[in-house]
Amino acid sequence: MNIEPRMPYNFADLEPAMSRDTLVFHFLRHQRVCYDRMVALSRGTEFETLALEELVRATERNPAHHTLYRHAAEVWNHDLFWHSMRPRGGGAPSGLMAQHIVSRFGSYERFTREFRDAGSAHFGSGWLWLVWRAGTLEIVTTSNAGTPLVRGDTALLAVDLWEHAYYLDHQNRRAAYVNTFLEELVSWEDANRALASLSAARDLRVPPRVRAAAELPLRRHRQ
C-alpha cells in the first residue's frame, strides 16, 4: 500500500525563492495526478501491494508496464525533490556532503558550475540528480520520468527539469532556476542524512587533507 504524497512544508514556505503558485500547481496538477493514475493502474494487479520503490523497480523491467512505471517513478522523483529543498536553504554544504564534494569536484564552486551546466545542457524534460555511485558523488540527468532508483545509484538530491517546475517563476530561464535551487533552496541537511544512512559496510570516509579543506569557509557562487 503506497502512502499518498505529502509536502514536507507549507506551500508558501519556500517564497520568495519558489512561489506558492508554483508549488500548488506542481503538487496538485502533476505529482498528485501521477499518484492517482498509479493507484488506478496498479489496482487489482500484482503491483497493488508493493511499496513505491519496489513498484518502480518491478514495472521498469517490463515494457508492458511502462505506463505504470512512468507514473510511479514521477511520484518517487517528486518526493525526493520536495525533500531536496527547505525554507531558507541554499549555500555551501557542511559535514559529509562538504567533504565528498571537495573530494570529487575539488571545490564547491566547481561543483555548482558543473551542476548548473548539466541542468542547462539537458535536452527536453527530465531530472537533474546528485547521486552516490561506486564510492563517489556523480552529477547525472535523466529524461522524462527516468530515475536513478533503477540504476543502482543512491539519489541524494533531485531537481525537476520539467518546465512546470520553473516556468511560473523563471519563464524559460532554466539556468536561473537551478541557480536559485543552489543559492536559496537546497537542503544539505537532508542530503547529509541520506548519505549517512548508506550501509555501514560502505566506506564513506575521505582523506584527512580533503576533510580539512572542506572545513574552510566557502564563498557562495552566484551566476
Keywords:
single chain, 223 residues, mainly alpha, Helix Hairpins, minor pseudopilin epsh fold, 2 domains, 3 strands
Shape: globular
Main beta-sheet annotation: 3 strands, antiparallel
Query: Taking Cα atoms only, what radius of gyration do you get, to the nearest Å?
Result: 18 Å
Helix and strand run: HHHHHEEEHHHH
Account of the protein in words:
This protein has 223 residues and is mostly helical. It folds into two domains: 20-83, Fe,Mn superoxide dismutase (SOD) domain (Helix Hairpins, Orthogonal Bundle), CATH 1.10.287; 95-214, Iron/manganese superoxide dismutase, C-terminal domain (minor pseudopilin epsh fold, 3-Layer(bab) Sandwich). The protein contains nine helices and three strands; from the N terminus they run H-H-H-H-H-E-E-E-H-H-H-H. Strands 2-1-3 form a three-stranded antiparallel sheet. Strand 1 (126-133) and strand 2 form a beta hairpin. Helix 1 packs antiparallel against helix 3 (66-83) and helix 5 (108-121) packs antiparallel against helix 7. The radius of gyration is 18 Å and the shape is globular. The termini are far apart.
Topology overview:
Elements lengths: L19 H23 L9 H9 L5 H18 L11 H11 L2 H14 L4 E8 L2 E8 L10 E7 L6 H4 L3 H12 L2 H9 L11 H7 L9
Antiparallel strand pairs: 1-2, 1-3
Please sum up the structure shown.
Helices cover 48% and strands 10% of the residues. The protein is mostly helical. A 3-stranded antiparallel β-sheet has the order 2-1-3.
